[in-house]
Amino acid sequence: NKYDFLALPIVDTENRLVGIVTVDDAMDVLQEEATEDMERMAAIQPSERPYLLTRVLDLYRYRVVWLLLLMISASFTGAIITYFEDALAAQVALTAFIPMLMDTGGNCGSQSSVTVIRSLSLGELRLGDWWRASWKELQVGGLCGVTLALVNLARLTLFSQVGTAVALVVSLTLIVTVVSSKLLGCLLPIAASRLGMDPAVMASPFISTIVDVLSLLIYFAFAALLLGL
User: Are 109 and 208 spatial neighbours (Cβ–Cβ below 8 Å)?
Assistant: First the structure.
């Protein structure tokens, strides 16, 4: 793709031609690798057979392990909500914003992880560039977080019945959650690659689960600080 070659020579240790790799061979490999990455990013164990030719039990086996792991890890969010049950009872309005905060954090983490995973696969980003990527995502996260927080603060202040303190808690949580999610989405795929794992494993489902826990902890920390819960 870089040099517009239709074929590449394969030589032995004495530089004698022993074969070629044609463009259609390369496309076959690219298709297989892209499919594998997409399956891993969707928390599915890669399959080598076409979908309609894959048995139901095989599809079940490819998917259920990840689903079990994600379900168990997601139970931490329930444990956190249960732990802060008294705080939620004192400020019932806080409950309504939990899905929005968790979804926003997961979306932000997914954006960063997909971008970094793609850059790693294309060779645009090397493992030694982690600090440059982190700084870039920190800036993007700050801009996105402030924008979302300001819009949310205006919406809650003008069109909602919640108090100013609750609106401030939600808005500050958005800023910290977005920035943290962007950094996690950037660093986790790089860390996975450094450990010899497929960076695609650290995509949407896995990062979303981690960010859900993080966003709740940040949320209740701000609630305890500003609302005295």
Answer: yes
Burial class (CB in 10 A: 0-12, 13-18, 19+), 202: buried
The answer to whether 40 and 176 are in contact (CB under 8 A) is no
Q: Determine the 3-state secondary structure of 20 from DSSP.
A: strand
Q: In a 3-state reduction of DSSP, which class is residue 17? A: strand
Residue 172 CB contacts under 8 Å (≥ 6 apart), including other chains: 149, 222, 226
Q: With contact defined as beta carbons under 8 Å apart, do 167 and 94 qualify?
A: no
Q: pTM of whole model > 0.85?
A: no
- Does residue 48 contact residue 38 with C-beta atoms inside 8 Å? no
Supply 175's token pair: 């800023």
- Contact by Cβ (8 Å): 181, 111: no
User: What are the Cα distances from residue 93, in Å, to 40, 90, 96, 167, 220?
Assistant: 37, 9, 6, 10, 13
Q: Of the candidates 199, 153, 201, which has an alpha carbon nearest to the alpha carbon of residue 175?
A: 153
pLDDT at residue 46, rounded to an integer: 67
Closest C-alpha among 215, 223, 136, 212 to residue 176: 215
- Evaluate whether 193 touches 37 at the Cβ level (below 8 Å): no
pLDDT above 70 for 44: no
CA angle 116, 107, 176 (to 5 degrees): 90
* 92-118: pLDDT as tens digits: 888 888 889 988 998 898 889 888 888
Query: Is residue 27 classed as helix, strand or coil in its secondary structure?
Result: helix
Report helix, strand or coil for 44.
Answer: coil
